[in-house]
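User: tokens in, sequence out, please.
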């Protein structure tokens, strides 16, 4: 059975750090990426969608994946707002003029999808906090429209009802993470046929491995995870298209193993293996525009 991981960050791994990458010859960079991709291939993971990086590693991965007979989609780098979460995944902008300049760079590098970081991440110290919505609706709408006119889908990192609702309204193609949302957003995703990639593995793996450095945060993490799991079941019943993405490269989520962690967490919720693989492959194929 061939598998799709709809959300990874290949630049975050155990082989190299950002500084090493920048100071290494292309031959070594190719060696690192090839090693990772071949491990994916060995486990029958044949298609990957990257969430972006600031060092163009995913661009090289796309090139090598083609040589390896794999499919790889990359946004090149993600777009975030200055002084907000996400600069390590790409480039920070401060308004539409900044975005126009960076979008030209993305087009030069043939982005497969536009990645927008709209909110922060789940705050393990304060239940319910996911940071501010980084872009105004007009800015979000402009970026979304630009991507559509160029002919690429829009992948949005968003958590919380406010951010996810704005992304849905703007007409994005996929919602990444989507922690702490309400039934309203689930209905809207179903209605607009927006794909949801709920990335359980980062929280699931922390809980499963019981890391001591999270001991004061485990209750909040468990609460958020439980809500996400319940929302996934509800979303499936509502007809939301759910694709599996591990967020490989995130803390506690290893390259290659991450998608199998994700599959396991879905099965633990009561989904049959057939249903999980169908979500993984059919909705993953749509997320990657295969």
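Assistant: Sequence out:
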């Amino acid at each position: 059975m061939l598998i799709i991981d709809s959300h990874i960050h290949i630049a975050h791994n155990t082989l190299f750090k950002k500084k090493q990458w920048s100071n290494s010859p292309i031959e070594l960079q190719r060696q690192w990426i090839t090693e990772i991709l071949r491990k994916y291939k060995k486990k029958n993971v044949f298609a990957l969608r990257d969430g972006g990086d600031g060092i163009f590693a995913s661009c090289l991965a796309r090139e090598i994946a083609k040589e390896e007979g794999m499919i790889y989609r990359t946004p090149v780098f993600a777009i975030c707002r200055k002084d907000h979460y996400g600069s390590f995944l790409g480039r920070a902008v401060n308004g539409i003029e900044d975005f126009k300049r960076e979008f030209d760079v993305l087009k030069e590098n043939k982005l497969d999808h536009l990645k927008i970081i709209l909110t922060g991440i789940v705050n393990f110290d304060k239940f319910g906090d996911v940071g501010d919505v980084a872009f105004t609706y007009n800015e979000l709408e402009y970026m979304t429209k630009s991507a559509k006119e160029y002919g690429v889908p829009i992948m949005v990192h968003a958590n919380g009802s406010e951010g996810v609702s704005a992304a849905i309204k703007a007409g994005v193609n996929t919602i990444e993470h989507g922690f702490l949302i309400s039934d309203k957003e689930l209905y809207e995703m179903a209605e607009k046929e927006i794909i949801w990639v709920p990335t359980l593995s980062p929280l699931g793996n922390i809980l499963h491995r019981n890391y001591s450095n999270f001991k004061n945060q485990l209750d909040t993490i468990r609460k958020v995870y439980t809500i996400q799991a319940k929302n996934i079941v509800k979303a499936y019943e509502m007809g939301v298209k759910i694709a599996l993405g591990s967020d490989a490269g995130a803390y506690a989520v290893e390259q290659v193993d991450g998608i199998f962690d994700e599959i396991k967490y879905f099965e633990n919720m009561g989904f049959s293996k057939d249903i999980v693989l169908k979500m993984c492959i059919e909705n993953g194929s749509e997320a990657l525009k295969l």
